[in-house]
Amino acid sequence: MRLFFKKNERIPKNDEVRDCIWKGRRFQSIETNLYCRANSLKRTRFAISAAKKLGKAHERVRIKRLYREAFRLNKHLLSPGFDIVVKPKTYSDSYKYKDAEKVFLGLCGKAAILKSSKTIK
Known about the structure:
Strand content: 15-25%
């Protein structure tokens, strides 16, 4: 099975990202905030917001790439019909893909958007 991060799985507009952050539910870990909001679509959409305070441009790009990859490889585990926005809080050079995946799936479990858990309303 080939897994892609398709264009229709992105949250395309800044207004939609902002609505997810302001009107959605927030779930926290030490490294990351995850905002989740139900949408009217039959697919889960994803966005990452990395502020300049996170670090230099190459650090922000790397952390975004890690979380995007965690979503791409685990999207089959997520319930459809949600908008997810990830806002990393910290960056470290030793941060690896497995760390990002563990944090992402842990927060999705807290948000109850994994297929095996109850969905939020």
